[in-house]
Design a protein that fits this description.
alpha+beta; eight-stranded antiparallel beta sheet; 379 residues; D-amino Acid Aminotransferase, Chain A, domain 1; binds pyridoxal-5'-phosphate; single chain; 2 domains; 28% helix; D-amino Acid Aminotransferase, Chain A, domain 2
């Protein structure tokens, strides 16, 4: 216990005071090269000039924290994470603000979730203030890479993995913590389009007692086949049901779901409750707060596929949308399931879906006052 405390104290000092912010200028790409990438960044394809790396060893704590040119890692073929997937990640964004500054959105929530994910995978947590300092250091160094085009962002990917060269099955004694950054274009460059979804009845994403409520790499590996099945059924995304009864809707791909009941000022929202098999999204939490402030009742409870279908049929369920950092809000149009297909509303994005989407984007891009203190200025 004392060791852990000493470790975390060392680490926060290392990340905040010892990070060399001046980077080897030789690797910096020219303004012209940068402009070419930022003209059409897409998602996750291009990376900025630098990255943040820190190392951990049991008994020593976090050490060797540095900003360094973005470059391939050299790893040992026996590195534990390659074999047993002791690997977690986060996703957040930096937004260019109208006054020329740059801000991230609720990074302390990502930092807290990263700690929970680490603990679930028996990894030493990165202290929250060290996580934020690392993200800040990278964004500050690469602030020229924060795009300024409409709805463009700099996507940030902090991640941690077991780096010890060892094939025995136990928590590793060495880790890497990295942050990389990737400019991201507008998610819907040609206007918001609803996605079609396939309700997976063959596979589950998460089961009670498993890792569904943390952001670990293995959750994603296990989801790919179902996503492929959704594609074969002609759908964009997979919708996950609870593992036990295969009855309740949990998530869509890597996003949380909301259902709108009724319309206008009286519209209410339902979002699946956090039963331990859902990932507690920061976008989900933010939208619950915004919707309540707009006067809409939000209920967190179990929501069945049958209730969804019946509600759509009798007109009580008027809209459905998914939410997450990458896409913010994505409307759900067509739903395919073995028990019958249906279309939510008229298949176009619903009014409350679009209102909430604009409200959140306005805050993130600094177009309205940040009354919640959700923006974190960098530098
Ligand atoms: C990351 C993630 C989300 C969304 O979380 P945000 O914090 O809103 O980005 C939802 N579901 C899963 C499975 C995720 O991995």
């Amino acid at each position: 216990m004392t060791d852990t405390l000493a470790d975390s104290r060392t680490s926060s000092r290392v990340f905040t005071e010892g990070v060399p912010l001046v980077v080897d200028g030789g690797s910096r790409r020219s303004a012209a090269e940068r402009a070419e990438v930022l003209a059409d960044p897409g998602f996750g394809r291009f990376f900025t000039d630098n990255m943040f790396v820190a190392r951990y060893r049991t008994g020593q704590g976090w050490y060797d924290a540095r900003l360094t040119p973005y470059a391939p890692l050299q790893v040992d073929p026996s590195m534990a994470t390659l074999h047993y997937a002791q690997s977690i990640f986060e996703g957040l964004k930096a937004y260019a603000q109208p006054d020329g500054s740059v801000a991230t959105f609720r990074p302390e929530a990502n930092a807290a979730r990263f700690v929970r994910s680490a603990k679930r995978l028996a990894m030493p947590p990165v202290p929250e203030e060290a996580f934020i300092a690392a993200v800040d250091a990278l964004v500050d160094a690469d602030r020229d890479w924060v795009p300024t085009g409409a709805d463009q962002t700099l996507y940030l990917r902090p991640y941690q993995m077991a780096s010890e060269p060892f094939l025995g099955v136990r928590p590793a004694r060495e880790y890497l913590f990295l942050v990389i950054a990737s400019p991201a274009g507008a998610y819907f460059p040609r206007g918001v389009q609803p996605v079609s979804v396939y309700v997976s009845e063959d596979y589950v994403r998460a089961s009670p007692g498993g890792t569904g409520d943390v952001k670990c790499a293995g959750n994603y590996a296990a989801s790919l086949l179902a996503q492929e099945q959704a594609g074969e059924a002609g759908c964009d995304q997979v919708v996950w049901l609870d593992a036990t009864e295969k009855r309740y809707v949990e998530e869509m791909g890597g996003m949380n779901l909301f259902f709108v009941l009724g319309s206008g000022d009286d519209a209410e929202l339902i979002t699946p409750e956090l039963t331990g098999t859902l990932l507690p999204g920061i976008t989900r939490a933010s939208l619950i707060a915004l919707a309540e402030e707009m006067g809409h009742r939000v209920t967190e409870r179990k929501f069945g596929v049958d209730e969804w279908r019946r509600g759509v049929a009798d007109g009580t369920v008027t809209e459905t949308f998914a939410c997450g950092t990458a896409a913010v809000i994505t409307p759900v149009g067509e739903v395919k399931a073995r028990t019958g297909d249906f279309v939510v509303g008229d298949g176009t994005p619903g009014p409350l879906t679009m209102r909430l989407r604009e409200a959140l984007l306005d805050i993130q891009h600094g177009r309205v006052a940040d009354t919640h203190g959700w923006l974190h200025r960098v530098g």
